[in-house]
Structure formats: structure tokens, C-alpha cells
Design brief:
90 residues, alpha+beta, two-stranded antiparallel ribbon, 18% helix
């Protein structure tokens, strides 16, 4: 279901009942792996996180690694940041 590079690869879904009484499948939050710090990126308005991920870690789908290193759950939280910490390539 998930790409081999995904942080969700190998995690087992579980079932929960939502507020409306429906059974839903849930993907657990993966354990936070430590990222090695590479440096900072001075963000300019309009820059996308997936483009930065491609530039620095050769993986546009690795934008979540940048989010994780900057201690944000949602990538959108970095949309107004002027300086963004960048992880090293793996």
C-alpha cells in the first residue's frame, strides 16, 4: 500500500470506531527516527517543500523528513518559516 521509501511502510493498520459509529482503518503514527542535520535553507516566498526535498535529499516525497526535523506534524506549518532545517541525504 505504501511506497518503499514511505515512513508508513511496514506499519500495521488497526480498526477504530469513529464518532458516527463507523469502523475505520487507521495508520499509526510512525516512530520518529532521528535525522542528521545538514544545514539551514533560507526560504523564499512560494518555495515548495517537495522541491526543497528534491534539491537536498533527492526525494521529493521525502518532504516529511524536513517537516520532522523542524518538529512540525503538517508540512503547511513551514509555509511561513523563513529558515528551514534540512536533513542530510541518506
Amino acid at each position: 500500500m505504501f511506497d518503499n521509501k514511505s515512513r508508513y511502510k511496514g506499519l500495521s493498520n488497526y480498526q477504530r470506531i469513529d464518532r458516527q459509529g463507523r469502523v475505520v482503518s487507521v495508520v499509526p503514527v510512525p516512530e520518529q527516527k532521528s535525522e542528521t542535520f545538514r544545514g539551514y535553507h533560507q526560504r523564499i516566498q512560494g518555495q515548495r517543500l517537495d522541491h526543497m526535498a528534491y534539491k537536498y535529499i533527492d526525494d521529493p516525497a521525502g518532504f516529511w523528513r524536513i517537516s520532522q526535523l523542524n518538529d512540525v506534524m503538517l508540512p503547511e506549518a513551514l509555509s511561513e518559516a523563513s529558515v528551514i532545517a534540512i536533513p542530510k541525504k541518506k
